[in-house]
Every structure is written in structure tokens, then in C-alpha cells.
Amino acid sequence: MIKLRKVTIHDLELLKYWDTKKHVIDCDPDDDWNWELELNRNPEWREQLIAELDDRPIGFIQIIDPYEEETHYWEKVEQNKRAIDIWIGEETDLNKGYGTVMMQLAIETCFEVPTVNGVLIDPLKSNSKAHRFYERMGFEFVEERQFNGTSCFVFELKKPTDNRVNMKNSGLIIKTKE
Ligand SMILES: CC(C)(COP(=O)(O)OP(=O)(O)OC[C@H]1O[C@@H](n2cnc3c(N)ncnc32)[C@H](O)[C@@H]1OP(=O)(O)O)[C@@H](O)C(=O)NCCC(=O)NCCS
């Protein structure tokens, strides 16, 4: 079973180790996440989460309020959105459905806030695997944009109109391969 829990400073070495993985570098080549600093901070506009499969950490998720985020990475963005970053740590944990479940849990967390009406993501233009992954989950392409000089595709998942926010009980969770 996959669960999300808050990061702690005890995750520092693991996060730094995952940062050395090629598939993680490739999705975010220029970013320095400043883990030593950031794991000791807890700004209101951010949640940093570790995904655990049966208590084994398998990946990382960050959820931000892009309107409130302090560096204004998203520049012009509406209020009442959330933006997500995600990666799986070990190559051997890719393509087993874990990312899908992690995203579903993160999306559910986002829409638990009643005012939130959309979830944004910004994969690199070149990250076609991620585009497929998000489209399969219902995200729709919005635009191509430059973030810090890098070409990205912005996708958005709008809040479901049928008030079905609890995906855990909606049947949408795909069973994962053991
Ligand atoms: C993007 C990412 C989080 C997706 O996670 P994932 O666990 O690999 O994703 P899933 O396993 O749910 O889906 C990926 C593929 O596995 C397949 N798959 C899913 N469940 C499966 C299962 N039970 N059995 C076999 N295949 C499965 C999917 O069909 C999908 O195939 P596709 O690549 O042809 O579309 C992961 O690839 C990753 O960490 N990538 C590097 C970082 C990154 O790019 N992050 C996104 C930046 S915006």
C-alpha cells in the first residue's frame, strides 16, 4: 500500500541520493533543491511529501500554492491552484504504477481544499513519458512556457465537477504490480 507522509530532516541523505539518479536529473537538470535548508523550513504554501510503499520510501512529491510561492516561479498564475512536482527514486520502481497512485493521492490532497479548482504541472517539453503519464490521468495541455529559460509544457487537471474528490473510494486507483 502506498501512503504519503511529510518529509523530515531524516530524509536528507535519501533525497540527495535520489538526486544523483539519471532519470531524476533528466527531468529537472538545472534545479538545486537545497535540501539541507528546505527540510528545516515549513512554509505555508508548500507540502513536501515522501511516498512509502509498505513503509519503504519510493518517491517524492511537492505540492505548492503557485500564487503564494515565494520565488514566484510560476510568475503570472491564478489564485486557487496547486502545482505538483513528482519523482520516483529508484529506476527499479519505475513503470509499476506507483507514480500513478502517488499522483492520485497528491491530487486528492490538493482538492481537499474546497477553494482549489485546478492542479498544474510543468514537465520539460522533452519529457514525453511524463506527458503521457499526466494525460492518462486526465491532465490537459495548456501551453508551452519557458521556466527559467527552459521549455516546458504546462498541463492542468481541473477539479472534477461531480464533487468526487475522494479518489481513494472512487475506483480510480489503479492496482499496482507487486
Ligand atoms: C513520471 C513518473 C513519476 C511516473 O511514475 P511511474 O511510477 O513510472 O508511472 P506509472 O508506472 O504509473 O506509469 C508509467 C508507465 O508504466 C505503465 N504501467 C503503469 N502501471 C503498470 C503496471 N501495473 N504494470 C505494467 N506497466 C504499468 C504505464 O502504462 C506507463 O506506460 P507508458 O510509459 O507507456 O505511458 C516517473 O516516471 C518518474 O519519476 N520519472 C522521472 C521524474 C519525472 O519525469 N517526473 C515528472 C517531472 S514533471
Structural key phrases:
seven-stranded mixed sheet; binds coenzyme A; alpha+beta; 29% strand; globular; 178 residues; disordered C terminus; Aminopeptidase
Which blocks of ≥5 consecutive residues have pLDDT under 50? Answer: 167-178
Which architecture name does CATH use?
A: 3-Layer(aba) Sandwich
Could you tell me the strand content as a percent range?
A: 25-35%
Oligomer: single chain
Which cofactors or ions or other ligands sit in this model? coenzyme A
Count, helices = 5
Lateral arrangement of strands in the main beta sheet: 1-2-3-4-5-7-6
Q: Which CATH class is shown? A: Alpha Beta
Give average pLDDT, whole number.
91
C-alpha end-to-end distance: 10 Å
Tally of separate domains: 1
Task: Quickly give the structural class.
Answer: alpha+beta
What's the CATH H-level homologous superfamily?
Answer: Gcn5-related N-acetyltransferase (GNAT)
Residues in helix, %: 10-25%
What is the tally of beta strands?
7
Q: What is the succession of H and E elements? A: EHHHEEEHEHEE
What would the CATH topology be?
Answer: Aminopeptidase
